[in-house]
Design a protein that fits this description.
The protein has about 190 residues and is mostly beta strands. It is built from no helices and 18 strands. The strands form 4 sheets. Strands 5, 6, 7, 9, 11, 12, 14, 15 and 16 form a 9-stranded mixed beta sheet that branches. A 4-stranded antiparallel beta sheet has the order 1-2-3-4, with no helix packed on it. It is globular, with a radius of gyration of 19 Å.
C-alpha cells in the first residue's frame, strides 16, 4: 500500500488485491479530499488483468494529478519476468461531471441512463459498477439496469491521460405496479 497527497491535502491511496480483477493480483486506488471524504471510489488501475500486478506506488503533484506505478508479470514476454508499468490520472476538476438522466431509484426491470455531461471529444470511456469494469460499457452514456455504485473513467486518446468521475449509487428494487403506461409506483420490497 502507498499514499501521497497534493498541496491542498487531497490524497490517493493504492494497494494490490487478490482476484478482484479476474486473475491473480490487481492494482486498486481511492482518492480522498483533505477531510478524508472519498472523491473517487475504489477503482481498478491496471488495464492488463492477466496474472499478477503488485507493489504499487503513487506520486501526486500540487495540482492533484497523480501517477501510479506497479510491477506486472508476463505482460510483454513469457516466463517469470516482471516489468514496471504506470497510469497517469488527471485531477477531476478538469473532467466533465457524471450525471444521471432521471432518478436514482427505479423499479426492478427498469433502467437508469448515466452519462458524461456533456461528453468531450477525443475521450474514450470505461464504465464501472462497484469498482469493476463493465466490459461492454465504453460509451459516453450507460444504461444501468441493476443496483450498484457506478463511475466512469475517461481516457484522452492522444495523451493517454486518465480522468475519473465521482460515483453515483442507483437502486432498482421492488415490483412495478401500473394502472396506465404513464404512472408507475414501486412496491417497497427491496
Amino acid at each position: 500500500m502507498d499514499r501521497n497527497s497534493d498541496s491542498s491535502g487531497d490524497f490517493v491511496i493504492t494497494w494490490y488485491s487478490a482476484y478482484e480483477d479476474g486473475s491473480g493480483y490487481g492494482i486498486y486506488a481511492k482518492k480522498y479530499n483533505a477531510q478524508g471524504i472519498v472523491q473517487w471510489r475504489e477503482f481498478l488501475v491496471n488495464t492488463y488483468t492477466t496474472n499478477n500486478q503488485v507493489n504499487p506506488c503513487v506520486a501526486m503533484d500540487s495540482q492533484g494529478d497523480f501517477i501510479i506505478a506497479w510491477q506486472g508479470v508476463h505482460q510483454i514476454a513469457p516466463g517469470p519476468y516482471y516489468g514496471i508499468y504506470a497510469q497517469r490520472f488527471i485531477n477531476t476538476s478538469n473532467f466533465t461531471p457524471l450525471s444521471v438522466n432521471g432518478v436514482t431509484i427505479a423499479c426492478s426491470g427498469d433502467s437508469i441512463t448515466l452519462g458524461v455531461n456533456p461528453p468531450a471529444t477525443g475521450l474514450t470511456y470505461q464504465w464501472y459498477k462497484d469498482a469493476i469494469a463493465i466490459p461492454t460499457a465504453i460509451g459516453a452514456s450507460y444504461k444501468a439496469d441493476t443496483s450498484g455504485t457506478y463511475s466512469v473513467i475517461a481516457t484522452d486518446s492522444t495523451t493517454n491521460y486518465y480522468f475519473g468521475s465521482t460515483s453515483i449509487t442507483i437502486y432498482l428494487r421492488g415490483i412495478c405496479k401500473s394502472s396506465t403506461a404513464s404512472t408507475k409506483s414501486c412496491n417497497p420490497t427491496a
